[in-house]
Amino acid sequence: MKNSIVCLLLMLVMSSCNMSLYLNKKGVIDVPKKESYQVTYKTSLRSSIVAKISYTDESDRIQKVDNVTGDWEKTVTLKAGKHVKIKIVATGDVKVPTDFKVLVDGKIISEHTLNGKKSKFSFSFDLP
């Protein structure tokens, strides 16, 4: 009974947060091996949603972009064997869907829609 009450209280607290999470470390992705790849990061933010984005750039550094609104897309060319990361934290006044997508050479390797006042999408993978 005590566990049921604790579980119920935890569910109540979590539901009032209106936060959606997607965290994934994929490892080596299944694409043909070659010298370099076109990696495209995309997000579609509804009205009143603002995001902070960090992503791996061509120099193998993490770049940060603040105050992103609307549709955002960035394509970078990365060499084989690189570890790639993207993290997007989107916040807004109301609970609305936010779309996230990562492509490698035009092939979707991650696509998710999160729904909350605050959404966190974090995805990492290794190029072959």
UniProtKB/TrEMBL annotation:
Keywords: Cell membrane, Membrane, Signal, Transmembrane, Transmembrane helix. Belongs to the MmpS family. PROSITE patterns: PROKAR_LIPOPROTEIN (PS51257). It comes from Pedobacter fastidiosus. Its main location: membrane. Residues 1-19 form the signal peptide. This is Uncharacterized protein. It is found in: Cell membrane. Transmembrane segments: none annotated. InterPro entries: MmpS (IPR008693), MmpS_C (IPR038468). The keyword Metal-binding does not apply. The keyword Signal applies.
